[in-house]
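Friendly challenge for the regulars: who can give me the structure tokens for this chain first? No prize, just bragging rights.
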Amino acid sequence: MHNLYRRQHVFWIPFLWLFATTITLAQTVRGRVTDATTGANLPGVSILVTGQNTGAITDANGAYSLPLSPGPYTLRVSFVGYTTQTIPVQVAAGTDATADIRLVESLASLNEVVVVGSRSTQARSSTQTVAPVDVIQSRDLVATGQVDLTQQLTFVAPSFNSSRQTVSDGTDHVDPATLRGLGPDQVLVLLNGKRRHNQALINLNGTVGRGSVGTDLNAIPSSAISRIEVLRDGASSQYGSDAIAGVINLQLKEQPGTTVNAQVGQQYKGDGQVAQVGINHGFKLGDKGFLSLTGEFRHRGATNRAGDYTGPVYVNWNASQQTGESVAAYVARRQALYQQDQALIRQNGFDVSNNLQVGNARVQNAGFFLNARVPIQGTSASFYATGGLNYRRGLAAGFYRYPYQTTQVITALYPNGFLPNIQSSINDQSLLMGVNGETKGWRWDISNVYGGNSFRFDVTNSNNASLAYLGVLNNPTSFYAGTLSFYQNTTDLGAAKDFGKQLNLSSFNVAAGLTYRNDQYRIRPGEAASYLNFSPQSGQVGGAQVFPGYQPSNAVNARRNVYGAYVDLESDVTDRLLLNAAGRYEYYTDFGGNLAGKLAARYRFSEAFSLRGSVSNGFRAPSLHQRYFSAISTVFVSTGQGLEPRQTGTFRNDSPIAQAFGVPPLGAERSLNFSIGVTSRPLTNVSLTIDAYRIRINNRIIYSNQFSRGTSGAGLIVANILNGAGQTDVNSAQFFANAVNTQTQGIDLVLATNPRLNTGTLDITLAANFNQTKLIGEIQRPANLPTDATLGNFLFNRQDSARLTSAQPRSKIQLTFNYRLRKFGAVLRISRFGTVESYDPINPALDETFNPRFVTDLNVSYRVLKNLNLTLGANNLLNVYPDPLRVVNAPTPERYGSAVLDNSSFGRFIYGRNATQFGFNGGYYFLNLSASF
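First reply, four minutes later:
Bragging rights claimed.
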């Protein structure tokens, strides 16, 4: 260590001598870089002396200094989101020079150089690439007034969609996110260009993305993000499995200085209070190194938009007709039971308006991220690292358990029933380390990223009904229900070189690489009381109500290895023609290999018009979650009498039960993507891109509907299979299967302009996505699966079909105005969310269509001090809600069975929860404070 210390000091001696000599022979060019419109200081701006390997980066106050010998120079000043400028400077002997610079913001995101989608060093804006790319700056995320990354992206990227779910178990705590109307697991997320791990939770309830595994974007603090690139094109051949719909690349901040962003707000209704603070600080490490640290805390209060409950509470007047009972006698019995129930409701003071929580879960989130790069002395290489820790704690409610449900409620413990809660503890961590550099023209990169996500379930305010014999004092009301976890380790080795000069071309970039990935998926069981039935003969239901714990039979620790190799070619064949070709082979140790390829081109007819297009095939390997997840859970199923709870078992494809049903092993989803588009700059301050696409996906993996037990026909087959496997408490069975083929086609449009004004600046952006997904061909149902419609035995029913094809908006149009005048600024965004639909599993009369809605966001900002900005705003300014559910014929003592047409579950749901456009919380107002220094 002592010798190393001495060597380091000896190493620095010539540099100290060189620095001292430079100081004595050179003058200094100093200055400050500011925003031309607002006058705000700009930290992190790059200033290079053209023709020399000399430069500087502005500090937190926008200041810079350059030691230069006397003579004329040209400074090249560049910063993401601003137009690059060249500034002539004359340095006289014995005199320091001053050069203050005012940068003008570039035209929206269409001029900004993109990284994702190409491995070439050629700088290309999103209008010059072979595939469409949205570039979203951190300031655009802040301007939405949202605090979660998924919600921020929803309001700035039309092809991206994410709506919070409610009464959906773990999905209440992790927002499913989609691109171009496809599934959450068909978009690949990168962090600083490297694959990001998936979440541990698999979405099982009736939500968008049912049966899929996405990436928890909300585990990444938006305060750490410099910009986001959304590649809207199939990219499996470039980046690997999951990139069927596209790629989202999150670039973390690198610039020096400190930024703080804080927000407080709440819904118009007075709930859903939000408090968020994010701090980022960047350090310079030498001339080219940096260390960026980010900490962020978010609190989001719960919201509730439940309606008044009109169903049975203490006495079940909604009982079925008995054998041999006349209709008149049946109605009379129901009426008598109803009167008894109403009397007990009044006697006990039961609150029919406060027994369900339909809205956002309560969430507290804390995250820490670092991003660093350090040049390796004496080489052209650099070491880089990115790491993050995130912890989230959530609380969401399930369905109320009423006193009449005696098989589920210990009435001695809860005489008025109870609202059980799911408490989540979500841990997310990742660490990326790598080295890159250049050797003999070859740009090389070696990296390893390890990341993981775990989801712990705890159930509170509940009971295990089979423990009724314990009485009141000794009965548990809280249960540990188990933990899901997913970990991923990825090693990449890549190299690229541009052979353009050798081939007498503007560019001919060749990139190739190898990838090794290890995936691990685990299920840890909960405590015994969370899943056991301690008195099977009593008729009481075992396990924790709302979420029975994972059982030892569900425990799994599965792994797989993935090996990949890719080649990526890109060339400016002529000044007008750009070509790209890519191929990738990946081998999965648990199901085999796949070859994906892509051809793309862009032809520039003129400065004002270009044509681009691509064709590619892709694939998505079944996740370990889909292959190995199993559980027993309580699912509420729509029946003629309302929502009924059922104990449903999800069984692995390699289980004896699945094999008895004839369910085959899971295979990969395979896609074929076509896209064609135009890019145009008809005027210097107008940009337009229009891209059409068609995506055919075969063998999509779905989560089946319930195959329910019965006493005859198909139901008896199900009962015999379940009983034979010892699953006597389970009412139905579900599986994952490659079952459907789909075709998605649509159009993306982005039009941006900044008209010249006499005072201030105005950016106008019109962005839109139109898409349609439909099923192609027959549902691939194994021949020996029972299909008795009266029992709801469907592999993929009409409700599942609607969830896949029309539960997300078929169109989203966003018009944004961003105006700035000296210290003032204003952002107005009008978003139109298109139609969504929700179907009943059996009865078309219960289908719902939710019409398009316009949502208006407005915020006004004022720069109090040079580096302090205050913003007051409102999201959903006009307090718009989606269409309410139709209640044609609600259940009453006189109305029952097929006469009932009600999706509201006895009035508890005012708005649809299976298909949502933008949520149903109404307006939200906020105060935001941002500072940089």
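Residues 163 and 919 are 6 Å apart (CA to CA). The two ends are 38 Å apart (CA to CA). Your move, everyone else.
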